[in-house]
């Protein structure tokens, strides 16, 4: 049984599938589980958000608001939840955070790229599977 899950998200449809799967995984044990959502903001997105919202403090608030509905959905199922925001390369930040905290499992959605796209572009989920020291579940 997984008691402490790190759920990597970016707000995409792929992340939604991962969120739904994580909730299904823990539903029999919901009162014993905590799911932490983690969102890593890359430099370009961070700059864009600051320009859009006027300052970094407001941008951070807007990012948290983006995931409040997900937090509420998870908590409505009886599971404790929190959001963690990081800045930097998503794969690197999530790997470092996961390896420095004690998680039973990390869950991430897959974008479904083909082999060529993954080879050329890389893949956050692939990097997480390779470098995180706890089990990683990739949801298609």
UniProtKB/TrEMBL annotation:
InterPro entries: Rossmann-like_a/b/a_fold (IPR014729), Universal_stress_UspA (IPR006015), UspA (IPR006016). It comes from Halobacillus aidingensis. Gene3D superfamilies: HUPs. Belongs to the universal stress protein A family. Residues 1-140 form the UspA domain. This is Nucleotide-binding universal stress protein, UspA family.
């Amino acid at each position: 049984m997984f008691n402490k899950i790190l759920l990597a998200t970016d707000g995409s449809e792929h992340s939604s599938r991962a969120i739904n799967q994580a909730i299904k995984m823990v539903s029999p044990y919901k009162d014993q589980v905590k799911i932490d959502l983690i969102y890593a903001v890359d430099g370009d997105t961070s700059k864009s958000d600051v320009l859009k919202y006027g300052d970094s403090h407001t941008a951070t608030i807007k990012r948290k608001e983006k995931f409040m509905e997900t937090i509420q959905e998870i908590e409505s199922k009886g599971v404790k939840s929190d959001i963690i925001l990081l800045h930097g390369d998503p794969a690197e930040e999530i790997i470092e955070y996961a390896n420095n905290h004690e998680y039973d499992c990390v869950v991430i959605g897959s974008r479904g790229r083909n082999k060529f796209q993954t080879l050329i572009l890389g893949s956050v989920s692939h990097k997480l599977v390779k470098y995180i020291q706890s089990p990683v579940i990739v949801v298609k």
